[in-house]
């Protein structure tokens, strides 16, 4: 197995590389990526099993640009870890955006990383892969929650959201509570970055009816 680490921090690259070597996984390290094509070229060189990439490396790609989404879609068997950049926040959990995309932070504890990697390391048979996918539950918001979240993250206050969506303030509070529960954080910065990354890499959060 092989992996790719894309992060501007040399300590992060070194730490991840040593961790992966302990699992007998080779790594290729990069400071960053210039374009989605550069990202595609890196992955095409070795088709890695795992990719670890800093949120800083995708911040410059606008949400309207679907090239990053297309690159990831061409590697369905690769597990992508996207690290949030949180200068004034903390998040030691993790969330599946898709079956092969996990958003977390560098505060992720080693035992949790072990837990996330182990099913992939042990997935040799096809039935094991199916069981692995069945156990994964990517975050999904309702249509109303998604619409409310977009307005909330764009800077609209509760009254503005209430007026635009024609719903009660109490309903907005309920939506916010549900979103925080599904994302497993009350940190608005984490929610904002998660939404930004999902728009860039997957076309947005999963939306249920």
Automatic annotation (TrEMBL):
<dbReference type="InterPro" id="IPR036388">
    <property type="entry name" value="WH-like_DNA-bd_sf"/>
</dbReference>
<dbReference type="Pfam" id="PF00196">
    <property type="entry name" value="GerE"/>
</dbReference>
<keyword id="KW-0238">DNA-binding</keyword>
<dbReference type="InterPro" id="IPR000792">
    <property type="entry name" value="Tscrpt_reg_LuxR_C"/>
</dbReference>
<feature type="domain" description="HTH luxR-type">
    <location>
        <begin position="134"/>
        <end position="199"/>
    </location>
</feature>
<protein>
    <submittedName>
        <fullName>Transcriptional regulator RcsA</fullName>
    </submittedName>
</protein>
<dbReference type="InterPro" id="IPR016032">
    <property type="entry name" value="Sig_transdc_resp-reg_C-effctor"/>
</dbReference>
